[in-house]
């Protein structure tokens, strides 16, 4: 190629690019003044093929997550087709059915029910593991509860045995003291009656009985008077204490 020919080609290419730029700017200027009817536009874009749609979907995915992770994030099943061996197991399919509903499985819902063989195995397990019926187990629990309550009551009573023994011994000692005091009192009364008559008299004698009743009346009278006197002394002490408190309040300086 000659130098002259090369120079001509360069000039032509520059002219073509310049004309293209001018035409593009002119068309853009014309488009600004043009009125577009948006009612004629399609609501959804139409792509020429599925590959372009997939490419556009990848560009829209700004999270850069894997497909299964993004499906989980969007609340969809992670895989449309089985990817691992355990994806074909009944356990995994049951989990997908429970988590995503019928969209999580392409199997009918009946696959989740146990087979007749599995039902027999479960029944045998129930028979061995839980031999008692629900009513029998309930009665057994009630019986165990009753036995535990009785054992707790017995343990509580056993813990109070020492206390009860001490109280019983105190009551017995008190009773013995009272009986001994009564015996000494009776002997003293008998001795006083015999001194009164001046000779030994039988307790079955009517004179002895009459004198004994008279002595007992005098003793009861003395006890009654002593009790009354003690009550009066107690009341007198309370009145004196109350008067002293009132005098103290009156003599106390007012703040």
UniProtKB/TrEMBL annotation:
Q: Does the keyword Cell inner membrane apply?
A: no
Any Pfam family matching the protein: CR6_interact
The record's listing under InterPro entries reads:
Ribosomal_mL64, Ribosomal_mL64_sf
| A GO cellular-component term linked to this record | nucleus
So what does this one do?
Acts as a negative regulator of G1 to S cell cycle phase progression by inhibiting cyclin-dependent kinases. Inhibitory effects are additive with GADD45 proteins but also occur in the absence of GADD45 proteins. Acts as a repressor of the orphan nuclear receptor NR4A1 by inhibiting AB domain-mediated transcriptional activity. May be involved in the hormone-mediated regulation of NR4A1 transcriptional activity. May play a role in mitochondrial protein synthesis.
Q: What is this protein called?
A: Large ribosomal subunit protein mL64
Disordered: annotated span: 204-255
In which compartments does the protein localize?
Mitochondrion; Nucleus
Keywords of this entry: Cell cycle, Coiled coil, Mitochondrion, Nucleus, Ribonucleoprotein, Ribosomal protein
What is the originating organism of this protein?
Mycetomoellerius zeteki
Q: Which Gene3D superfamilies match?
A: Growth arrest and DNA-damage-inducible proteins-interacting protein 1
């Amino acid at each position: 190629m000659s130098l002259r020919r090369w120079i001509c080609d360069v000039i032509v290419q520059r002219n073509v690019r310049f004309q293209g730029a001018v035409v593009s700017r002119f068309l853009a200027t014309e488009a600004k003044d043009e009125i577009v009817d948006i009612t004629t536009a399609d609501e959804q874009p139409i792509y020429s093929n599925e590959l372009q749609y997939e490419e556009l979907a990848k560009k829209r995915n700004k999270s850069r997550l894997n497909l299964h992770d993004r499906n989980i994030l969007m609340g969809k099943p992670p895989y449309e087709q089985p990817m691992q061996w355990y994806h074909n197991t009944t356990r995994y399919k049951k989990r997908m059915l429970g988590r995503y509903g019928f969209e999580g499985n392409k199997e009918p819902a009946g696959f989740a029910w146990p087979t007749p063989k599995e039902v027999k195995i479960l029944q045998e397990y129930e028979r061995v593991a839980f031999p008692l019926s629900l009513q029998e187990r309930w009665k057994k629990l009630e019986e165990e509860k009753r036995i535990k309550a009785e054992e707790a009551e017995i343990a509580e009573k056993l813990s109070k045995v020492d206390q009860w023994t001490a109280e019983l011994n105190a009551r017995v000692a008190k009773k013995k003291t009272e009986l001994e005091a009564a015996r000494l009192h009776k002997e003293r009364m008998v001795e006083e009656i015999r001194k009164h008559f001046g000779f030994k008299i039988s307790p079955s004698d009517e004179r002895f009985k009459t004198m004994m009743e008279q002595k007992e009346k005098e003793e009861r009278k003395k006890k009654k008077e002593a009790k009354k006197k003690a009550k009066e002394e107690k009341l007198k002490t309370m009145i004196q204490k109350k008067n002293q408190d009132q005098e103290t309040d009156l003599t106390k300086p007012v703040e």
